[in-house]
Amino acid sequence: MRRRSRTMLALAAALALISTALHAPPAKASNQLHQVHQLHQVHQVHQVTYDKYSLKIDGKRVLLRAGEFHYFRLPSPGLWRDVLEKYKAEGFNAVSIYFHWGYHSPKPGVYDFTGVRDVDRLLRTAEEVGLYVIARPGPYINAETTGGGLPAWLKNVPGRARSSDPGYTAAYQDWLGHIDPYLAEHQVTRGGSVVLYNAENEYAANTDRQYMADLQAKARADGIDVPITHNQCCDAASWTTDWSTGLGAVDIAGVDDYPQSFECREPDTPWGPWGEGVTERLSDKSPVFAAEYQAGSIDAQGVGFDKCRQLTGVKYMKYFYKNNLIQSGATLFSYYMGFGGTNWGWLPQPNDVGTSYDYGSQITENRQLTDKYDEFKRQNYFLGAAAGPLTETDPATAPAHDNSALQTVARANPSSGTQFVLLRHTDRAATTDDSTTLDWTTRDGRYTLPVRLNGRDAKVLVGGYDMGGQRLAVSSSEIMTHAEIGGRDVALLYGRDGEAGRTVLRYSGAPTVKVLPGDGGVRASYANGDLTLDYTHRGLARVQISGGGRRPLLLLLGTDEEAAKFWRADTSAGPVLVRGTSLLRSAQMRGGTLDLRADTAAAGDIEVFGPGRKVAVNDTAIPVHGTASGSLAGRVPGPRPATVPALTGWRTHSEAPEAATAFDDSSWTVADHTTHADDYGFHNGHVWYRGRFTATGAETTVKTNAITGKNGIYQVWLNGRYLGSAAGGVQADAGEGTTTPPNPDPGPGSFSIPSGLLKKGEPAVLSVLVENMGHNDDWTAEEIRHKQPRGLVGASITGSAGQISWRIQGAKGGEDLTDKARGPFNNGGLYGERTGWHLPGFGDGGWKASAPGSVTPGVNWYRTAFGLNLPKKQDVPLTLHFAKGDGKYRVLLFVNGWNLGQYINGEVQQDFALPAGLLKERGRNTLALAVVAENDAKLSPPSLRIVANHLGGVSP
Ligand code: IPT
């Protein structure tokens, strides 16, 4: 054993202090890079390499398991830590992050990386939490966000996006030139956490190899020296050539798999309609990388994310993830999404999503853990515990058996011989209850092992395994984790409730076996070095084994549910297992006390297996006593109750003065080409058009065309008279890979003109309010798709020959943001938005007192303020709930000036996340609603709802 010298330890301690100081959030944005640089001078640098089996850090194999996270979908940087700690707590060791070009760049050459866009803080948080980062800066990201991450101003840049076209090249090189330095500074090779760099996204539909080569050359020039990856969609065959060699080839090519489809409508019917989901090996020089593996779904059918969560639920995870693990031999996994978040403001791409991007993922939009989280925890803890042998495996002979309804598939580590056996149904869709007996030879001998698979399920069984100081010959239970704690091994195995289990352990002589009181009916027998334990998975059984030539073992045998109650964390004094809290964020030994940072949903019992004899939870010492299992037991407090006020004191004001003939639009931009609101720099939200003409008096009909993106509307007024609304044009979908011809008649509207409204020879004004639901993505890399115009694209008046002269007004300032903190997606061009009616400081004292209720067509605002006094040191996520109303209307909701989404009456989403941080949990908040009604409508006032209440949490 090598010994570290005292001076080295002292130096390390000093450096740790410096680095803690430097971890403080930077005072000024301009200092950020400089600070990052200093930070890494005191951090250790590491080397990242790989071979056909796995990634290696400093020569040590790593089994990478990441959840995807989008910081831009959680506009509260303090809460990034909450989500990342929840990833870490369930055994992920990495986070995969898209970086959203359009989110940072409102205008060519203008970039912002401060506040909710502070990527340096994001990467630092990942480092502090202890997660590797797979950095995915695009330039194209897809992700169901506006433009697929391309900035809307790119519509005005000539040249095909996602190609080596010079116009596009200049634009994206500028983006990479801004984002890459952050990613480079935070690389593992400089002491940070970025371990992989993903170039582009599913670049399957295009084959511009030069573009892929240029992207990588740029990254390298910007200092990226970790392996570059690509997420290929959706199987290797879609590439025309081998992307592991030749121009544009990446270091580690990965594959995206979404086997369960996005059909949330029928969540129980499909079983891998899009295939088996076995990640393909794309090269013999690099490991198999499941770059995006389905962990939820978009809700394109608008049936609600709970159904998507069901579609991709625990059974799906058990079957597909384990099947993939053993069949593919992948050692890098990234799950899309780990936490989806919120499409606040005008962040959504209109075709597949609305405000919520919950994604049916394991952590809900309001940061709550689900049963899917438990399953990730079971599987991830296993991957962590068995990473040694699992990171280097080859296909192996699977144990034989005689039930054709069941199938075994095996991999083995070539040096240790450890075997990993997948037990699945032969027909993957089978729901039958089948049993068989495996004839299983491991390096320890030949074993017969009864196994069972009931319904949609799969198991990974381990044989010939060094389980800490123990030797596991075979087991029909699955391993969740094992750890050496206080001189003994603690191993946690699990199985489905009521199923029988057998575990065989090896000893040099008969060990002493003590079955502690509890469930499971454990029976032990010993012969020829094999201790065989037979039991039923029921509750939690505990068996103490000592002697037999090994260090003592506490074997915990639980059901799935009992196993998932355990948390594992690592301290400088070794690993810790805890049960009884609803989350364990981290653990630390401080002067003989084991200090846990944990969340609790209710007061209850806690049990701790760890170093030391004293326990503190969230800095408060708790009395504990020793148990027969050698653990410490005590009680933890729960949260204090939390309440939210009713929303009262509403004031209202209607707007749309733009509709009136006399409105002064002289400051508006003259619109002499009516094709593109984006041409004028109005990229998000609502845009007004006012057209003047001289009436003939013979006009009969206004005919219009406007493009809004799916679900968008536009409204027409003539001389202040409301003529009506129409659905805006959407992306014409001619199918993948085709060049979609522009629709000649997009979003048609036809409005008859009431007689007498126009008088011959008099000036008339046509006012049109067009919503922009966001920009199409560019998944197929066909120019026409993401560049589809938004806005009024045609207007004519039957019975009039005269010219209409137009002026246009969108968000105040256009590309020159007037609200840099909230950024490009916060506001459109409603009068109230341009005038600041959504902002906390606005004086609404002159407005009429009235709660949301009956509205007339057009735009109506409501404002109120509410005080919150949520208990300190608790995490109490709130939503704003909209009850269904009558009529066609939609509501933009602003909390403290932040646009947190759009409620569309009649659509499935009625609850909107209000993230703490921008919501003041102990203070006064302003709520402003912009109600855009298409007809006379009636809404009921929204209300605040408490989603959950935990003691603990992070400070937002
Ligand atoms: C894949 C994308 O890479 C990702 O950005 C996201 O859009 C995801 O799908 C769906 O939510 S695209 C692939 C499944 C066709």
UniProtKB/TrEMBL annotation:
Location of the Beta-galactosidase domain: 389-566
UniProt keyword DNA damage, yes or no: no
Record EC number: 3.2.1.23
Molecular function as annotated in GO: beta-galactosidase activity
Catalytic activity line of the entry: Hydrolysis of terminal non-reducing beta-D-galactose residues in beta-D-galactosides
GO terms classed as biological process: carbohydrate metabolic process
Alphabetical keyword list: Glycoprotein, Glycosidase, Hydrolase, Signal
Segments of this protein annotated with the region Disordered: 730-756
Stretches assigned to coiled coil: none
Signal sequence residues: 1-24
Record carries keyword Endoplasmic reticulum: no
SUPFAM superfamilies in UniProt: (Trans)glycosidases, Beta-galactosidase LacA, domain 3, Galactose-binding domain-like, Glycosyl hydrolase domain
SMART domains according to UniProt: BetaGal_dom2
Family: Belongs to the glycosyl hydrolase 35 family.
PANTHER family cross-referenced by the UniProt entry: BETA-GALACTOSIDASE RELATED
Protein known as: beta-galactosidase
